[in-house]
Amino acid sequence: MYGTSRQKLDSNGRLSIPIKHLQSFNADSATGTGHGVLVVGEDGCIELFPLDAFNDEIEKIFVTSENTRDGDTRRQLRRLIGNAYGVDIDERGRLSIPNKYRKFAGLHTGPIILSACGSYLEIWSPDTCPELLLEFLAEERIRQK
Description:
145 residues; alpha+beta; 37% helix; globular
């Protein structure tokens, strides 16, 4: 997955995933539904992993670490597993973000920034989004005119 886009969070905390990313989350192509995992990011965003990519990420931590009890590995596992929340993606490509995750990332009804980072998506509040992503969006808006 790649690219950055503006999306909207509705009043029920639902977010629509862009079609170009949806196939990474769709486990059932007949219904269009899929599954993902939300994780709090270290820098104030919410990370949204497709289920398979989340499992791969956990496996990398266990495989690359000789000692899963060391401090760094334990912090990574707590962040990924301890804060993980499974989400279902409906037939319209939407998922609901629980209130505690919205509060963590400062998300409110209205615009949000969705940035793809290879195997997962970052969900940002426009107020805390890195300037580089916002600058890119501004350039794209100018080019489309």
